[in-house]
Amino acid sequence: LGALSHIEDVRQAEPGEFTKRAFLNGKMDLAEVEGLADLLRAETEAQRIQALAQMEGSLSKLYMQWTHDLKMCLANVEAFIDFSEDQGIEEAILDSAAAQAEKLATEIQAHLSDGRRGERLRGGVKVAIIGRTNVGKSSLFNALCQRDAAIVSPIAGTTRDVVESMLDIGGYPAVFSDTAGLRNSDDPVEQEGISRAQRWAAGADLALIVVDSKEFLHLQPTTDFTEDYLKQLGLMSCAPLRLIVFNKRDLLSADEQVAVEKKAKRLPVESCFTSCTTLQGIADLVKILSARLEALCGKPAECSPLLTQERHRRNLEQCLKHLKLFSTEVQNDSVIGAEHLRIAITHIGKITGRVFTEEILDVIFRDFCIGK
């Protein structure tokens, strides 16, 4: 490379330069470019499947169809505006355009109401490991990571910050967060760790609530056990999806294990039993997590194209907004209605790159490897 750089008119390619040239020459659109970028960064099989489908045009074809339908609506409205008096075009053409716009609005709304599955799959499902001090959260985190990712100690309050690790669970990406133990503390550093744990629990997609099996043995489970337990921990807000992990199973006698399992079955929340010392139950926990992640992300090979970027979502929301304004305005003022359709088309064009600015391109291409 050093020798090549001394040749006149030869230089090292910029990050994403080849892909950018493909885009500027009409070989790829922006949605396909983003799919390629996601494919290069993919860490799990499900991410690769989703990224490959987007790179091959699954989203682009959908957006092109919507653009075509919007242009047909606009053509009808403009025909009415330009020729209704001379050619006797009836107002029924506006009704037809309004009906088509309403159909498109329904399709776009359904596309937006996907539970953010594509975005979640692209970035990783957020899984917070929460619970009291010394229940084995860090040990569980290490067992899932299969390495010493977090410090483990018998001293309560060892974990004071959030430790994250991206794991491949059954082909799905999951960002696990080991958090500080929840308790009352006068230590300002530990208090900050607890505050962070509470924020992570509130922002997670799935919460693993770790409970000491021995402690649970002496508790009276109720139908509201999970909510009551979270309130005891000081968690006013927590991920809506929860899984209770009864840890330290190896410290129970055979009779105690039977008693604890019987009590756990009465809970309204799914649970499992683990021992981070013997690794008993870890494989079962991974199976449960895999099923939960699949439910949160869907199967990319079987799903219709999913939204993968916040940029797409914002533009589609604006497109939907102007479609609704068109439906409201078209009968009163067809000229204003037509303008709303043009704006709707522009917002879809921003997704595919038919309409773009240098700022958008800089953001998309800056994360590519050199030369890609």
Automatic annotation (TrEMBL):
List the CDD domains.
trmE
| GO CC, alphabetical | mitochondrion
One GO BP on record is: tRNA wobble uridine modification
* InterPro entries associated with the record: G_TrmE, GTP-bd, MnmE_dom2, MnmE_helical, P-loop_NTPase, Small_GTP-bd, TrmE/GcvT-like
In this protein, which residues make up the domain named TrmE-type G? 124-294
Q: Provide a Gene Ontology MF annotation, just one.
A: GTP binding
Q: Name one Pfam family in it.
A: MnmE_helical
**What's the name of the protein?**
Putative mitochondrial gtpase
Q: Tell me the organism.
A: Amblyomma americanum
